Amino acid sequence: xxxxxxxxxxxxxxxxxxxxxxxxxxxxxxxxxxxxxxxxxxxxxxxxxxxxxxxxxxxxxxxxxxxxxxxxxxxxxxxxxxxxxxxxxxxxxxxxxxxx
Length: 100
What we know:
This protein is about 70% helix and about 0% strand. By secondary structure, the chain is mainly alpha-helical.
């Protein structure tokens, strides 16, 4: 599936979420917008010309911006999406012992 199909999916999600009467379903559709954005950016990157360690920021910055827009449009706080300082030591321990 090329970037053009993902662009169609992206716009379909945008339009459908704008026309949807159910707020919950509209929020779900807007949350799904991040998926085609990842695919569009990933498929559009010139793989040969970039070092692999540049890929992460190139993909992460637009995705982070889209996430902020989605959070603000749905009036979600950092706590609502699971970004909390509570239990940070436990989260770090779990992260260190993650299986590879």
